[in-house]
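User: Here's a structure from my thesis project, written as structure tokens. My advisor, Dr. K., wants to see whether a designed sequence matches the one we expressed. Can you design one independently, without my sequence as a hint?
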């Protein structure tokens, strides 16, 4: 038998890796819904709208909502476990960011476009809104039990245009208390490391 050439072996392994990813099962809508609402206080989970995936790369509504919160099962297509919930008033801003990234806009350019559109009135930003997130390594999430461990909860309160002087909160990052991010901009927000949930 002739020896296997390194180039051929590399190609074979690449095909096997792609095939394994392609055959990786998509979490069911029920699993995605259960995971996506985890950042919310328990009493708010049942009424939240949930967006997730029926096919890779296409975010769709998996469950309609009734309490004004929208949760995203982003972990399905990300290398980490990340889920986020926010008030529906923030959806135009969030959806615009997703669309810009899909169109190839990267990094700070996404905010540059959104800020310009907010200032021109073509994109609406609410007077305030809240976001809850959970992030951790993918292996720290057990889909069978819907249990996540060693995660980093983060709560965010958007107050467009806020400055340290207007809200009395420092713009210096800290792990021990709230701090203001993007001060003076349309996406100024107070970062609360840890959860606001009981």
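Assistant: Designed independently from the structure alone:
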């Amino acid at each position: 038998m002739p020896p296997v050439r390194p180039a051929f072996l590399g190609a074979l392994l690449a095909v096997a890796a792609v095939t394994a990813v392609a055959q990786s099962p998509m979490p069911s809508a029920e699993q995605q819904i259960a995971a996506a609402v985890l950042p919310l206080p328990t009493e708010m989970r049942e009424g939240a709208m949930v967006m997730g995936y029926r096919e890779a790369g296409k975010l769709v509504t998996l469950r309609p909502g009734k309490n004004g919160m929208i949760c995203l099962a982003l972990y399905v297509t990300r290398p980490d476990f990340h889920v986020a919930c926010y008030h529906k008033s923030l959806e135009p801003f969030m959806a615009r960011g997703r669309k810009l990234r899909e169109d190839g806009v990267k990094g700070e350019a996404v905010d540059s476009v959104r800020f310009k559109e907010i200032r021109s009135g073509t994109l609406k930003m609410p007077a305030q809104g809240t976001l809850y997130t959970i992030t951790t390594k993918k292996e720290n999430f057990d889909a069978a039990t819907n249990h996540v461990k060693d995660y980093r909860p983060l709560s965010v309160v958007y107050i467009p245009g806020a400055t340290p002087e207007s809200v009395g909160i420092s713009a210096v990052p800290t792990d021990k208390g709230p701090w203001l991010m993007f001060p003076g901009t349309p996406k100024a927000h107070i970062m609360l490391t840890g959860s606001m949930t009981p």
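When you compare it with your expressed construct, this may help: Residues 6-23 form the longest helix (18 residues).
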